[in-house]
Amino acid sequence: MQQPPRASLSRLSKQLAAIVLPGLLLVGCLGDQSPLLPASSTSENEIAPRISTVQRASDQEHQRLLAAFGGEYRAPRARAALDEVVQRLAKAGEGQIGHYEITILNSPVVNAFALPNGRLYVTRGLLALANDTSEIASVLAHEIAHVTAQHAVERAEKEAESALVNQVVSQVLKDPTRGAAISAGSKLSLAKFSRQQELTADQISVRNISRAGYDPYGAGRFLATLGRNTAFRSSGQNQSADDKRLDILSSHPQTPERIAAVTAAARQIGAPGIGERDANRWLAAIEGLAYGDDPRDGVVRGRRYLNSALRIGFSAPDGFSLEAAQDMVIGVSANGTQALRFDSVTLKSGQTLESYVAAGWIEGVETTGIEKIEVAGQPAVRAHGRGTDWTFRLAAVQIGDRVYRFILAARGGSDPERQMRGIIDSFRVMTPAEAQSIRPMQIRLVAAEAGDTIASMAERMPEQDRPGELFQLLNGLDRNAALTPGQRYKVVAE
């Protein structure tokens, strides 16, 4: 069978993602993706010193941003390392850099932004990608530069800060009056700046990290990692190179241009080898950092999806890859001929499962052959659907007033009935003990031994998709790089 082009697969993923419960897009500086159900978390109402020319955001707005990005992530060692970097940047800034309150966001997305009020946010997903202190210093210096160069202020003059926060939160938390459909793996970001503003912030950040004593070439290394991360995520979603989906670098100038610019700026300061990198200290600061999805929001383990808060799980068919997205899980077969969507809704008062399915929840798809069954001891219904180019198998499992829905689409006349039967047979309700046993993946440091290779280190990450490529990405290594015995490398494990 001839494999369909990746572009068509991407279109199907978008179509499935657009079917009910649409998420919303948020454009800006850096970004990645979000979970099936939002986590409930709180943070301390700490007030940061502010830049006097801009009215500070209220604690309420801060809390709303935390809710939109998964809440605050408590990581004392990482937080201490970040605070020290900002203090050094401020000291070297000769009064140009104010004081910032740093919040680590509990999100696997790769994101960082500074609000005009002086609050600085970084995600744990971004922290995991940095390999030394100079690299994370370049990120913080870049975001601070937007404020010190008045970029954020210029934007705030066009849109009041309160309105900006409202926009951020409403888009992340699904305001149906303002949103657009989100595709699997859509990226979140904040505070979109112009191309020239981004390049200017890059130049300022290189100078500032150098004055603070850090390696100015760290900016180029981290930009290269960001580009590799985007390519890694894109290839995992089988999207084409010209698929215009938002990602971490979508609002920035092209990565090669930025790398060339920051490298040239660093060379004006000195030859490679100058400044502090302190890789060991940074790696020690992020050891144990949660990586990937929060189990409360649902995690992907190979072909399995597990949600400890909902206490449910299921497995996709052989050859499928799964990805948790906003309010849904999307799966795609290896050959691109089938796609899966999983989500949930709440039945209206007095509504039965059969009547809900019979009413049809997919626009343009006729639902037939509705059959009552039992799945994991729970009432369920399965049905057949037919669209213009795709054949659908539908299933809905009811637990209380919540309905868990599966949509499996196959190209043309192919009927995915067998695959759907396997999916619903795998659906299970976990015991409280089983749910509590699901642990988040973490960044672990492993010292390479003589004879270790990228492949042998990747074997330590059996639950990860494409572990070899991920190991290279996390450690900033080329494909044929030789490992240094005794040196510690990042792996992802429980």
Walk me through the structure.
This protein is of the alpha+beta class. The protein has 3 domains: 22-291, no CATH class; 304-436, Mog1/PsbP, alpha/beta/alpha sandwich (Protein Transport Mog1p, Chain A, 3-Layer(aba) Sandwich); 443-493, LysM domain (Membrane-bound Lytic Murein Transglycosylase D, Chain A, Roll). It is 35% helix and 20% strand. The protein contains 16 helices and 17 strands. It has helices at residues 6-18, 59-68, 76-92, 124-127, 133-148, 151-158, 161-172, 195-211, 218-236, 255-269, 279-286, 353-359, 417-426, 432-436, 454-458, 467-475; strands at residues 101-105, 112-114, 119-123, 290-291, 299-301, 304-307, 312-315, 320-325, 328-333, 338-346, 366-375, 378-386, 390-399, 402-411, 428-429, 441-447, 488-493. A 7-stranded antiparallel sheet has the order 8-9-10-14-13-12-11, with helices on both faces. Strands 5-6-7-15 form a 4-stranded antiparallel sheet. β5 (299-301) and β6 form a beta hairpin. α3 crosses α5 (133-148). The longest helix has 19 residues, at 218-236. The radius of gyration is 23 Å and the shape is elongated. The two termini are 38 Å apart. The relative contact order is 0.13. Mean pLDDT is 78; it is low at 1-10, 18-28, 30-57, 156-165, 167-191 and 238-252.
